[in-house]
Each structure stands twice: as C-alpha cells, then as structure tokens.
C-alpha cells in the first residue's frame, strides 16, 4: 500500500464548510480525497451536494466558484427515470472559474469521485500528460469505468449504495494498478512535507533524480511540472491556513513569512492568480 500522503495534505474548495464531502474507507484514503453527489432529502426529493456548493434557497440556478484544489474528479450523472447515463473526467486545473450551479430540479442524479493528484495514474488507463484544465469524456482516461461502475450506478438507491459500489470498483482497480515510481513519490512527499515551499534543488536531492527526469515524471503521471505542483500545494496550504488559522499563523503577515513570499503584495498577487480573489475577498465568499 502507498504511504498515506493524505496525512500531510488536505486540499479544500472555495467553500469548504459546506462541500458535502464523504470520506472513503481507510484503504482508499491514501488515494481518494472524497466522494460527493446527490443524496435524498427529508422530503424524498433529490438535492445536490456539490464540490463547492453555492446553491442557496431560492433560484434553481446560481454561480459557484471553482478554485484549483489539485484534485481530479470523475463526475457521473444519470436520468433517474430512464437510467441514461454519462459523465466527465476533470483533470487538474490551475485557474479559477465560475460555473452555473443547478438546483437539480430535473430528475437527474450525480455521483463523483475525487482523486488526490498523486494517485490518479494508479486508476487511469493512460498517461496524464494532457489533463491540465481538461474536462471531457471519462472514457478518454478510464475506458472500463462505464462497464464496471457507471452503468451500475443508476440501479443504486442511496448515496451510501453508490459509495459502496465505487469503493468496490476502486479497490479492484488498485489491486491491478502498476506500482508507483519511487522517485516521483519521494518528490511529492517532499513537496507536501514542505507545504509547497521547496526549490528544484530540494526535489533533486530528495529523489536522486535530475530536474529533467522529474519534469518528465510529473508531466506523465500528474500532468503538470514539479514547480507548478509545488505552487498549487503552497496555494492550498495558504488557503487552509486562512480558513482555519493556527496559533502560529494568525494573520496575512504570518503567512508571508511561513510560505516564503517576499512581501504581502507578492502573496496577494499569487493567491489571486489561483483563487480569483484576494485572501480577504476569498474568505468573505467562503462565509456567505
């Protein structure tokens, strides 16, 4: 089993307190960040638990902000009446964007698997060189998904049933998975351990690999460069500290020092590139 890198790193969404996320079984926690999707409400109607919910009482359609969380998702959706199903795979993204958030007024059901970025290649059928900001057919990277899980999901009655089916599928895929490259995993461990504040020389010394070798491995197994991976991990750790201040990091100036920024404007500009907002604006959005 892979060392549980998730113990070092906890990526969150633009509205982490209402994300409707469900933790996988212990065996899958090193690989799967969470499950999310549609669940039955108290009135028997379906309601949507989105990755970053911005669906409030009132209008059926609102806007929601998606920020880079370093994860990748399979999102499967089907018509509750006909069972007609299909889905998308969302690769790792490095830019924020807004989407329309449906209130799910139609009889459609959604179920999603969110992967940690270092684990997707263990379940996918192909390299991940082209997954940066990718959103497309699940079959492109998971050719057996529809047959082994997707077509079975419309027959489930509850979110718990869907999670159980997904865990069975994922554990079976994991048994068949090719083993991880030790150099790659050592580099990822170094990035997570240092919360994204690590230079290329630090990765080389921790892995014994050259910068060229690391670049090739990261682009093949994750879809982005080591530097971009570290930048996104640093952003996520800053965001986590903003949402949940610690005794040692209580304000923006503490973040500047802790995460190696040259000054507060440097932090603000870097954060806004990924969040689409300044730290204070992002906090205000998260607390709406």
From TrEMBL:
<dbReference type="InterPro" id="IPR018060">
    <property type="entry name" value="HTH_AraC"/>
</dbReference>
<dbReference type="Pfam" id="PF20240">
    <property type="entry name" value="DUF6597"/>
</dbReference>
<keyword id="KW-0804">Transcription</keyword>
<keyword id="KW-0238">DNA-binding</keyword>
<feature type="domain" description="HTH araC/xylS-type">
    <location>
        <begin position="182"/>
        <end position="285"/>
    </location>
</feature>
<keyword id="KW-0805">Transcription regulation</keyword>
<protein>
    <submittedName>
        <fullName>AraC family transcriptional regulator</fullName>
    </submittedName>
</protein>
<dbReference type="Pfam" id="PF12833">
    <property type="entry name" value="HTH_18"/>
</dbReference>
<dbReference type="InterPro" id="IPR046532">
    <property type="entry name" value="DUF6597"/>
</dbReference>
<dbReference type="InterPro" id="IPR050204">
    <property type="entry name" value="AraC_XylS_family_regulators"/>
</dbReference>
């Amino acid at each position: 089993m892979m060392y549980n890198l998730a113990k070092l790193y906890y990526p969150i969404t633009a509205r982490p307190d209402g994300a409707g996320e469900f933790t996988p079984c212990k065996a899958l926690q090193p690989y799967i960040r969470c499950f999310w999707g549609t669940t039955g409400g108290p009135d028997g109607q379906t309601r949507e638990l989105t990755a970053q919910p911005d669906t409030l009482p009132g209008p059926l359609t609102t806007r929601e902000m998606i920020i880079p969380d370093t994860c990748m998702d399979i999102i499967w959706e089907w018509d509750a009446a006909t069972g007609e199903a299909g889905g998308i795979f969302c690769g790792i993204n490095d830019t924020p964007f807004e989407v329309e958030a449906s209130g799910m007024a139609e009889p459609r059901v959604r179920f999603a698997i969110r992967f940690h970025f270092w684990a997707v290649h263990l379940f996918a059928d192909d390299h991940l060189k082209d997954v940066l900001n990718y959103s497309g057919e699940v079959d492109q990277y998971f050719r057996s998904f529809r047959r082994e899980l997707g077509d079975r999901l419309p027959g489930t009655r509850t979110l718990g049933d869907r999670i159980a089916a997904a865990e069975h599928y994922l554990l079976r895929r994991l048994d068949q998975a090719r083993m991880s490259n030790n150099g790659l995993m050592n580099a990822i461990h170094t990035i997570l351990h240092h919360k994204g504040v690590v230079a290329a020389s630090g990765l080389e010394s921790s892995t014994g690999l050259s910068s060229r070798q690391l670049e090739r491995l990261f682009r093949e197994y994750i879809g982005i460069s080591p530097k971009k991976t570290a930048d996104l991990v640093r952003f996520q750790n800053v965001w986590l500290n903003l949402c949940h201040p610690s005794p040692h990091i209580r304000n923006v100036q503490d973040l500047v020092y802790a995460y190696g920024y040259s000054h507060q404007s440097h932090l603000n500009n870097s954060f806004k590139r990924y969040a689409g907002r300044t730290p204070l604006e992002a906090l205000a959005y998260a607390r709406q």
